[in-house]
């Protein structure tokens, strides 16, 4: 059952304007609890899992928490795609909103080896074999494409192929599959620049330190529409091999992994993920494909 707070009616006008409206800074009120519907079976007792704090579910994400995945840099308000997904997973596990605790964890620390300060973390983590050596992943909750953005008038603004990007100076956030995509798919002549977060990468683009940056597609749409004065999407990078997927991150061999994956599977099967994607990530179709 989808909580009434996180799901709003989405009509035929579900275009980028909806995404931008949904990403406006929100008030401090948290999401309503909604009805719990945790995975069935004694292995996943509702609201009584082996969590860091008894009766509570601790969810991690980065600071800042970016649009359109979150809204107003307030993960606890239930707004933005990943905040809404997190609360829906919590409800399936038997933890209403008042029993959810958020904690700040940097992207790199979340996927580094070692004990975690969260029960699960949600922060656009692509599931990769290398990362699986250090952490557990849930079932995927979103399929993603990497996208190149730049400023109008840039030498790569009109690029149609990956080859045309190889002479460009590019950048991306450290430790991300965006940075990996630059090296493995574009293979630029100049070593790409790496930044602590997307804000720093975006500032480098605005200041002319790079010709373009690589981010996931929804972030590309948000940045070019709402944050960059003359931002343009160059295009989506080719999909190679298994589609890139986002998953929730858990401690390696976490006792919660199976239950969290089961909750995500429920959200996919009952259509909740599709509804949330339409609500918060609407308007991200139609970006050109780079050949």
Report the helical percentage.
25-40%
Q: Approximately what portion of the residues adopt beta-strand conformation?
A: 15-25%
Overall pLDDT level: 86
Based on CA atoms alone, the radius of gyration comes out at 19 Å
Question: Residue ranges: pLDDT <50 for 5 or more in a row?
Answer: 1-41
Strand order of the largest sheet: 7-6-8-5-9
Main pleated sheet: 5 strands, mixed
- Helices and strands: which structural class? alpha/beta
How does this model look, in words?
The structure is a single chain. By secondary structure, the protein is an alpha/beta fold. The protein has helices spanning 16-22, 81-92, 107-110, 129-132, 177-186, 198-206, 217-227, 257-269, 272-280, and strands at 57-61, 100-104, 120-121, 135-144, 146-151, 170-173, 193-195, 212-216, 231-236, 244-251. The protein has a five-stranded mixed β-sheet with strand order 7-6-8-5-9. A three-stranded parallel β-sheet has the order 2-1-3, with helices on one face. The termini are far apart. The model is unreliable at 1-41 (pLDDT under 50). The protein contains nine helices and ten strands. α2 (81-92) crosses α8 and α2 (81-92) runs antiparallel to α9 (272-280). It is elongated and about 55 Å long.
Give the topology, please:
Elements: H1 16-22, E1 57-61, H2 81-92, E2 100-104, H3 107-110, E3 120-121, H4 129-132, E4 135-144, E5 146-151, E6 170-173, H5 177-186, E7 193-195, H6 198-206, E8 212-216, H7 217-227, E9 231-236, E10 244-251, H8 257-269, H9 272-280
Parallel strand pairs: 1-2, 1-3, 6-7, 6-8
Antiparallel strand pairs: 4-10, 5-8, 5-9
Helix pairs in contact: 2-8, 2-9
